[in-house]
Amino acid sequence: MTAAGFDSQVGYALESPSGTYTAPTRALEHVSSSLKLEMDRITSKGIKAGRRHQGRWFPGGQRVKGNVVHELSPINTGLLLRTMMGAVSSSGSGPYTHVYTPGALTQTNTLTVQVGTPSVNGTVNPFSFTGCHIMGATISSKAGEVAMIDTEFYGQHLDVGQSLTAASYSSTWAPFTFLHGVLSIAGSEYEFDDVTLTYKNALRTDRHVHRSTTPARPLTSLESGFREWTATVNSDFHSMTALNRAIAGTEAAFSLVFTSGANTLTFAGNVRSDVDSPTPDGPETLKQSLPLVFLSTTSDAAAMTITQATTEATP
Amino acid sequence: MKIQYNGASAVDVPGHDDVQPGAVIDVADEVGASLLAAGTAYPDDGAPIAPSAPLWRVPAAKKAATPTETAEAGKDTP
């Protein structure tokens, strides 16, 4: 029996304590994973008379880097959203409402990501990446396609000595498509072709230090800088309204809502529009690109809050 | 082996779709052991730490039926 990519799986668990392999509690249908262990090699600079090749080297620091791409669903993505944003508050009972706001990305916000990686001998090999923080994410939706979430991870270690955890998927998982997405800017619906939300967590990584325990692994990443949420909305050039707002420097409310039955996922905040004016460079109808930056002088949550209404009690 | 699902919403696991909260399913031992361990932390230098609210557990064994005494009990069978 051989095994191929269709046998692969991605599972997640919130770590406690941080950096400790924790057997996955849920699996998410994935599109791709590029998570990898990077191991530095340290080469000696010593010269030995008459030797033309340097033969001495040592193992160096290590880290985990890469992205995991999932289709965006209102189900089973709460763990990613919570780990990405830092804070969550939950209320209600079937459907439950989980509100994700910018909060501390502490040592309680690391994940074990286990990627079941098939080899042709028929084995699905568990690659268990530990101490993984979400560095950032890209959420996108394009007309005619499924909405996507692409999460960028930075982790501490690849543990290849653990067992593969049987994949446990949500039975009700289903992704949003472009049919489910509606965008409002400044309180009015804005018809669009595609939208891309980009998030960066500004974590300080590669914290390798001299220490007695696992010195090859970096220390847990730390918050170090301002977080950034931006968006780009591409559409027909509807009118001068959006461009005038950008030129005037008028901030506006932004709300991207995906609705599927009783499940909703809302990205809402306050945006500044940067100026990108349309140009007639051919006979076709003109297009407009809106570069948006999320910000607020009121609060971090007013800049960006993600709200999920779902049948799941736990994010 | 038989295992019981303690999660809050239905899941699909190898060999079983739409497993509802509280349901008991029969799975291969390897799958069962793996699911029972979900959420367990394995420190490099210590004993495994079980999750405070395990998603799966071995269902409680049914109480053995108590033999019923009858008037015929103890009599020799002709």
The radius of gyration of chain A is 22 Å
**Series of secondary-structure elements of chain B, N-terminal to C-terminal:** EEEEHEE
Strand arrangement within the widest β-sheet of chain B reads 4-1-6
Q: N- to C-terminal separation of chain A?
A: 37 Å
Please work out how many helical segments of chain B DSSP would assign: 1
* Sequence of secondary-structure elements of chain A: EEEEEEHEEEEEEEEEEEEEHEEEHE
Query: What general form of chain B does the structure show?
Result: globular
Low-pLDDT stretches of chain B are none
Largest sheet of chain B: 3 strands, antiparallel
Continuous helix count of chain A: 3
- From the N-terminal CA to the C-terminal CA of chain B, the straight-line distance is 44 Å
Described by the principal axes of the CA atoms, the overall outline of chain A is globular
What would your notes on this structure say?
The complex is a heterodimer of chains A (315) and B (78). Chain A is mostly beta strands and 315 residues long. Chain A has one domain. Helices cover 6% and strands 48% of the residues of chain A. Chain A is built from three helices and 23 strands. In chain A, the strands form two sheets. Chain A has a 19-stranded antiparallel sheet that branches. A two-stranded antiparallel ribbon of chain A has the order 17-18. In chain A, strand 20 and strand 21 (263-273) form a beta hairpin. Chain A is globular. By secondary structure, chain B is an alpha+beta fold. Chain B has one domain (2-57). Chain B has one helix at 29-36, and strands at residues 2-5, 11-13, 16-19, 24-26, 41-42, 56-57. Chain B has a three-stranded antiparallel sheet with strand order 4-1-6, covered by helices on one side. Chain B has a two-stranded antiparallel ribbon with strand order 2-3. The radius of gyration of chain B is 20 Å and the shape is globular. Chain B starts with a strand and ends in a 21-residue tail after the last strand. The relative contact order of chain B is 0.23. The chains are: A mainly beta (315), B alpha+beta (78). Strand 13 (169-170) of chain A pairs antiparallel with strand 2 of chain B.
